[in-house]
Amino acid sequence: MPSLYVHVPFCIKKCDYCAFYSLPLIDWSEGYGRMPQSAGDSGLISGYLRGAAREIELRSGEAPAGVSSLYIGGGTPTVLSWRQLDTLLNEIHQYFTFSDSEKTTEANPGTVDEEKLKVLRNYRVNRISLGAQSFNDRLLCQMGRIHRSQDIWQAVKRIRKAGIHNLNLDLIFGLPGQDLKDWKDTLRKASELSPEHLSVYALTLEEGTPFGEKYLQDRTEFLPDDDLQADMYAWAAAFLEEKGYRHYEISNFARPGYECKHNLTYWQGEDYIGLGPGAVSCIQNVRSKNNEDITAYIEDHGKGQKTFALCETEFLTAAQLMSEYMMLGLRTEEGISLTGFLQKFKVSVQDIYGPIMANYIDRGFLFIAEDRLTLNKQYMFVANAIIRDFMR
Question: In this model, does residue 175 exceed pLDDT 50?
């Protein structure tokens, strides 16, 4: 049973570090303001909803037994009006079957109100991932975020009042001008809100973003160096584990029982369906990607064809599947099941990766115990360097 991801490619304003496919609904000058009422009436949104409805109908046959989880991401899904959210969720639930599954929507502070939360609850959305990023107003402004720290508190209050008891907060460290004191303050304030889950990401500089253009060629003294970022990560891990959060994946912490089921389907190599512009699917070892162009997406709907146009399709080889299985599994606390690898690929993990495993086991970076290959938590911050060897 696959999981289902639906991409809503709209934001009020594009953040300076963001490389995901999304479109700002309005142009913002420097400063802080609120979304005008007219922003939600964009013709692009109406076209997107028509295209999404058509794609939902066409691709529902890929999950005849239903889907294991729903994740609505973006962009910022909650820039949609409550009526637009209702339209999208109604289409999803008309064609896809759900049991008592996890249903998540991403949201940003400043875009969450009682009417939208009521719609989400009507469709049994039971988890919200809130893009807090920081509790430092200076850093929020510098990132190009539309909210300030007080908006995080207000959004969480509304979410709790609506009866949603599974809340994730996204946080970023390694920001320009950020020091360890700033980071500790953000984590302490985040913990005071008592979220069930926290996602803690190091800033990634991406080409084509304002941050990338500013810092990729010249990593100035304003960016925390690797040692400081390692200290930030280590302090976060120790602090959150002390607060009762399980460090179950490199960037993710959860109270017991609140691990993100949707993301676990990716990390465990299970099938997933991605709908919306730029969304990626992987079904029975075939990975495909939708056109990352809202105009093309809307035009695809208008042609009335019986299949949706994809901009990329890739048939994954056994070698690709094994390397991705290792890459995703080693990111998690549970690691790789040696028996599970053998059952899935009909070959032992030692036969494929024996020398690489031996090298890292001898140096204490990896452990084998009780049929599982796991990453030493002391080296989670440099996990990507280790994982790259398995990807080769």
Answer: yes
In the structure, what pLDDT confidence band is assigned to residue 101 with cuts at 50, 70 and 90?
confident
Distance (Å, whole) CA 215 – CA 196? 34
Cis peptide before 66 (omega within 30 of 0): no
We report the CATH number of the domain holding residue 381 as 1.10.10
- 182: closest CA among 142, 211, 129? 142
Cis status of the peptide bond prior to 73, with omega within 30 of 0:
no
Residue 5 falls in which region: left (phi positive, over 0), alpha (psi -120 to 50) or beta = beta
Cα–Cα distance for residue pair 326/193, rounded to 1 Å: 35
Residue ranges making up the domain that contains 331? 318-391
Find the mean pLDDT for residues 212-216. 84
pTM exceeds 0.90, yes or no: yes
User: Which residues face 7 on adjacent strands?
Assistant: 73
Note whether residue 118 is domain-resident: yes
Looking at 251, 266, 281, the residue that finishes a domain is 266
CA distances (Å), 361 to each of 323, 341, 368, 374, in order?
A: 18, 18, 8, 10
What is the pLDDT averaged over residues 350-365? 95
* Predicted local confidence at residue 200, as pLDDT: 98
pLDDT at residue 43, as a whole number: 83
Average pLDDT of the residues in 290-316:
78
Residues 107 and 256 in one domain: yes
How confident is the model over 308-312, as a mean pLDDT? 68
Q: Distance between CA atoms of 258 and 254, rounded to whole angstroms?
A: 6
State the Cα–Cα distance between residues 211 and 209, nearest whole angstrom: 5
Q: Tell me if residue 342 falls in helix, strand or coil.
A: helix
Closest CA to 3 of 83, 72, 51, 79: 72
Q: Is 348 left (phi over 0), alpha (psi -120 to 50) or beta?
A: beta
Domain of 188: which CATH number?
A: 3.80.30.20
Amino acid 365: pLDDT: 95
- How many other β-carbons are positioned within 10 Å of the β-carbon of residue 82? 17
Residue 60 domain-assigned (yes or no):
yes
R_g of the chain computed on alpha carbons: 21
Say if residue 254 is in the same domain as residue 370: no
Amino acid letter, 314: E
